């Protein structure tokens, strides 16, 4: 019996999925579709990035594709990881000896390119999946190759296309009018590239995640001081207090007539040259619009992918699986674990619970996290627990296949202290 598998995406998650599928030696066809010219996904850096076309869009399936057809990555020039390279590595494939503990984005991209060296024959580059539907038991993909479109058929579909495509900008009173009145004044962190572009400007950064923290630190060297950062809560990410950065309350509303931004404590900000929203991304499936409507829609508002069992399998039809949806995790080994589970289930070496039990599991997750983006959010130590769960699940199949990382012992200890290690690194850089 033939088993044909399609994988959408050849970033870190897609590569992990491809390697896990191939290791099962159970599939007649494994074909990955990557719209870019090379592997790496979000780690492929674009030196130039055009601004987002609309500050008020809630179209979470909007593709962010500029005129030159080069897809925009959220990577910025001086991005360094927040996680130790030893922790980030796939199982059995360490970063090269001598790699910095917190490497530059270019080192991570080279690592992924090396990891993919024996997978390239399974990847079709510059091939964009533009539509997907089901005919009987087959998944039909309409794929655009240069100037031609072809329909290709598979038995299983793995979506590993990431979740850093459509910028999420919170609906805020007066924002649309403000952005239209002052073109270029408002942007999303996805389009930030280097601090020199903001020299002598007064900046307000909104958000307290990894990019918000990092961008404010970088801007302190070039922009007018203090850099303002609007936050709702204290960050759980590595961070050192900085007298050049002033934390302010959340935004109440924008007022274009006054060229002002009001905060929730009543404070009025004026003469702001740039507002940078570091507020995350919507989940989007532009190639699966047929599955984004109705009672069993995969997406309803871009906040999460709906109807999934353990973040991976679509409960309505487990021949569709996702790899790489969770965030606030250690992404590469977690994606590897998800890919290994998926490959074992599809090869017939592992079994899923009944549909009823899978629906109950999703309901329990919703009760714990809510219906928004937190559904896919883990953080420490829950990411370790999830990683170990994936490992234990894989091991139920017995020997054979790609083995994911185990999350007990040394790996868990390193995850536990990764925040402190990064803070120590930042402190050394400040002294230097």
TrEMBL record:
<keyword id="KW-0521">NADP</keyword>
<dbReference type="GO" id="GO:0004499">
    <property type="term" value="F:N,N-dimethylaniline monooxygenase activity"/>
</dbReference>
<dbReference type="InterPro" id="IPR020946">
    <property type="entry name" value="Flavin_mOase-like"/>
</dbReference>
<keyword id="KW-0274">FAD</keyword>
<keyword id="KW-0560">Oxidoreductase</keyword>
<keyword id="KW-0285">Flavoprotein</keyword>
<keyword id="KW-0503">Monooxygenase</keyword>
<protein>
    <submittedName>
        <fullName>Thiol-specific monooxygenase</fullName>
    </submittedName>
</protein>
<comment type="similarity">
    <text>Belongs to the FMO family.</text>
</comment>
<dbReference type="InterPro" id="IPR036188">
    <property type="entry name" value="FAD/NAD-bd_sf"/>
</dbReference>
<dbReference type="GO" id="GO:0050660">
    <property type="term" value="F:flavin adenine dinucleotide binding"/>
</dbReference>
<dbReference type="Pfam" id="PF00743">
    <property type="entry name" value="FMO-like"/>
</dbReference>
<dbReference type="InterPro" id="IPR000960">
    <property type="entry name" value="Flavin_mOase"/>
</dbReference>
<dbReference type="GO" id="GO:0050661">
    <property type="term" value="F:NADP binding"/>
</dbReference>
<dbReference type="InterPro" id="IPR050346">
    <property type="entry name" value="FMO-like"/>
</dbReference>
């Amino acid at each position: 019996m033939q088993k044909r598998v399609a994988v959408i995406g050849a970033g870190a998650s897609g590569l992990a999925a491809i390697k896990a599928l191939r290791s099962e030696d159970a599939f007649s066809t494994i074909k990955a579709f990557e719209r870019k010219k090379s592997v790496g996904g979000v780690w492929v850096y674009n030196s130039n990035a055009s601004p987002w076309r609309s500050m008020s869009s809630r179209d979470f399936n909007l593709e962010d594709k500029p005129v030159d057809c080069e897809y925009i990555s959220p990577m910025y020039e001086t991005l360094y990881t927040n996680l130790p390279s030893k922790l980030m590595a796939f199982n059995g494939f360490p970063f090269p000896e001598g790699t910095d503990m917190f490497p530059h984005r270019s080192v991570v991209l080279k690592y992924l390119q090396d990891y993919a060296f024996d997978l390239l024959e399974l990847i079709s580059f510059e091939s964009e999946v533009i539509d997907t539907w089901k005919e009987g038991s087959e998944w039909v993909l309409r794929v655009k190759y240069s100037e031609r479109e072809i329909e290709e058929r598979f038995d299983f579909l793995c979506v590993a296309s990431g979740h850093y495509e459509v910028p999420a900008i919170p609906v805020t009173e007066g924002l649309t009018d403000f952005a239209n009145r002052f073109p270029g004044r408002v942007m999303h962190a996805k389009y930030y590239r280097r601090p020199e572009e903001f020299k002598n400007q007064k900046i307000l950064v909104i958000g307290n995640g990894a990019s918000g923290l990092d961008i404010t630190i970088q801007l302190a060297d070039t922009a007018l001081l203090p850099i303002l950062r609007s936050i709702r809560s204290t960050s759980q990410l590595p961070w050192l207090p900085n007298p050049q950065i002033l934390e302010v309350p959340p935004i109440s509303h924008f007022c274009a007539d006054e060229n002002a931004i009001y905060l929730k404590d009543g404070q009025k900000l004026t003469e702001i040259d740039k507002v940078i929203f570091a507020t995350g991304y919507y989940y989007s499936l532009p190639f699966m619009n047929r599955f984004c409507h109705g009672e069993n829609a995969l997406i309803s508002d871009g906040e999460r992918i709906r109807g999934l069992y353990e973040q991976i399998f679509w409960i309505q039809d487990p021949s569709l699986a996702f790899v790489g949806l969770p965030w606030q995790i250690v992404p590469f080994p977690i994606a590897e674990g998800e890919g290994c589970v998926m490959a074992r289930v599809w090869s017939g070496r592992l079994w899923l619970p009944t549909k009823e039990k899978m629906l109950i599991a999703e309901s329990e997750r919703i009760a714990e996290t809510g219906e928004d983006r937190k559904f896919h959010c883990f953080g420490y130590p829950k990411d370790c627990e999830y990683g170990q769960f994936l490992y234990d699940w894989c091991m139920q199949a017995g020997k054979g296949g790609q083995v994911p990382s185990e999350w007990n012992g040394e790996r868990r200890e390193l995850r536990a202290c990764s925040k402190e290690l990064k803070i120590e690194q930042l402190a050394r850089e400040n002294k230097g």
